[in-house]
């Protein structure tokens, strides 16, 4: 268990704005070394300057980019103590109007990126001896529905199912 976050290495995906920016700000204000990721170089640079954190432009829907994020965290932060898998979207589309592409996009952005990010960072989290994963999920899906967010709700329920604990052997 952490006694303080000061000095810990933290990666926040989707960290350039919104909830991710808020998460990064709290960690940075409490003395953590923070790396934020996102797709917009301009948003990342502005947020990094504002918060005094490091950034890497990356699309965490790509396994290769997730590996780049982990490598960057190893180089710049010396490892990873906390991964905040926050990247996600929430488009509003009526169930009758959702296309196959909409489903792929939402599940890919919300669920696939969670799995790929955790998978890429797992060795560094294990090496820290105190690694933690924080997911930004939602009550939409596992607890309640919301009109227009059926594919979003499914992706968030999937995140929670993914995060069930595995045996230590599965991690190493």
UniProtKB/TrEMBL annotation:
Highest taxon, organism lineage: Bacteria
Listed SUPFAM superfamilies: NAD(P)-binding Rossmann-fold domains
Record bears the keyword NADP: yes
Family, similarity comment: Belongs to the short-chain dehydrogenases/reductases (SDR) family.
Gene3D superfamilies found in the cross-reference section: NAD(P)-binding Rossmann-like Domain
Coiled coil regions, renumbered to chain: none
The protein's name in its UniProt record: SDR family NAD(P)-dependent oxidoreductase
Origin species: Trebonia kvetii
Assigned keywords, A-Z: NADP, Oxidoreductase
Keyword hit for GTP-binding: no
GO molecular function, one term: oxidoreductase activity
Any Pfam family: adh_short
């Amino acid at each position: 268990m952490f006694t303080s976050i000061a000095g810990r290495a933290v990666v926040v995906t989707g960290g350039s704005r919104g909830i991710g920016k808020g998460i990064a700000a709290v960690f940075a204000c409490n003395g953590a070394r923070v790396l934020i990721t996102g797709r917009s170089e301009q948003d990342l640079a502005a947020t990094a300057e504002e918060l005094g954190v490091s950034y890497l432009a990356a699309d965490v829907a790509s396994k290769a980019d997730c590996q780049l994020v982990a490598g960057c965290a190893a180089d710049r932060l010396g490892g990873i103590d906390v991964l905040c898998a926050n990247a996600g979207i929430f488009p509003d589309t009526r169930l009758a109007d959702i296309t196959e592409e909409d489903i792929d996009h939402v599940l890919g952005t919300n669920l696939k990126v969670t799995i790929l990010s955790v998978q890429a960072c797992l060795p560094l989290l294990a090496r820290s001896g105190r690694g933690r994963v924080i997911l930004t999920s939602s009550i939409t899906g596992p607890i309640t529905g919301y009109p227009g967010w059926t594919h979003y709700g499914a992706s968030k329920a999937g995140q929670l199912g993914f995060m069930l604990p595995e045996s230590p052997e599965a991690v190493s």
